[in-house]
Design a protein that fits this description.
Number of helices: 11
Order of helices and strands: HEHEHHHEHEEEHHHHH
Number of strands: 6
Distance between the termini: 40 Å
Radius of gyration: 20 Å
Largest sheet: 4 strands, antiparallel
Length: about 280
């Protein structure tokens, strides 16, 4: 949880942490808004000459257990019919926490909501406020602890003048690029494969067949893991791009979370399900 002298914000942070949102940073909206066009800016509650306090919220693999626990009352039919089941958990949890804790006005912007007036350049936001480094080569945000194994979820903008918050720094600390030459070489190779995955080599097919992800799919869903062209699925090449980075490998998602992130296959959550 973040540390702040504002009791309600501290409680909000702690409540979100208990729900699995363990990546958080308080920031001044001006740090981001000053770098983007008006259509991508965070709301400012009509403040003139000042900016708002906001909380950037994300998660590592720690969110998976609370999320899975939330599905225990769902039938398989409910699970399969809920289009964005994880995004629904994010929205429901964040909205409930904010409604029960905050007394001031607030505005929510979710990563998955790209409707007009709601679109935020979240990767740039994370970079500009010092939560993570945005690597333009692999197009991933790299957290100083988790590396690429975290996800941004939302920004909570509070109707509080950022200048009045004593424990907020005057300016952000932009993080350095953690990638070394070997990372850059690995990124270039993985990116080339992801952008042009077919035809695959025999070595790539064998590597995919031997991967934990393929084994999990075969065991959990009894799924034929190769495509009609006898090649690994396209998502696997993009997964390899994330996996090729050395930083944060100990925080890599477990198989189910990782596969849902890349396939959005809700069958992974069905109870006692093997097909």
């Amino acid at each position: 949880a973040v540390r702040t002298a504002l009791p309600a914000v501290q409680e909000l942070s702690s409540r979100l942490l208990s729900a699995g949102f363990d990546v958080q940073l308080l920031f001044n909206t001006a740090w981001y808004n000053s770098t983007v066009s008006e259509d991508l800016q965070l709301p400012n509650f009509d403040r003139v000459g000042s900016s708002c306090l906001a909380l950037l919220v994300g998660n590592s693999k720690q969110i998976w257990q609370p999320f899975r626990q939330s599905l225990t009352s769902f039938s398989n039919e409910n699970i399969l019919s809920t289009q964005s089941i994880f995004d629904s958990y994010v929205e429901r949890t964040v909205e409930t926490c904010c409604e029960s804790i905050l007394s001031e006005q607030y505005a929510l912007r979710f990563v998955h909501d790209t409707s007009p007036g709601k679109l935020i350049a979240f990767q740039k936001l994370a970079h500009e406020v010092g939560l993570a480094y945005f690597n333009p080569l692999c197009h991933l945000c790299l957290h100083p602890m988790y590396g690429p194994w975290f996800a941004l979820r939302c920004a909570i903008v509070l109707d509080i003048d950022a200048a009045t918050v004593p424990d907020l720094p005057a300016k952000p600390t932009i993080l350095p690029d953690p990638c070394d030459e070997s990372d850059i070489a690995a990124i270039k190779t993985a990116l080339a494969d992801a952008l042009d995955p077919v035809p695959s080599t025999a070595a790539q097919t064998l590597q995919f067949r031997a991967s934990p992800e393929a084994a999990y799919l075969q065991t959990r869903l009894s799924m034929d893991v190769l495509t009609d062209s006898n090649s690994p699925p396209t998502w696997w090449y993009w997964l390899r791009l994330r996996q090729c980075l050395k930083q944060g490998q100990e925080y890599m998602y477990e198989s189910e979370q990782l596969l849902y992130h890349y396939t959005r296959d809700r069958r992974l959550f069905c109870h006692n399900q093997s097909a």
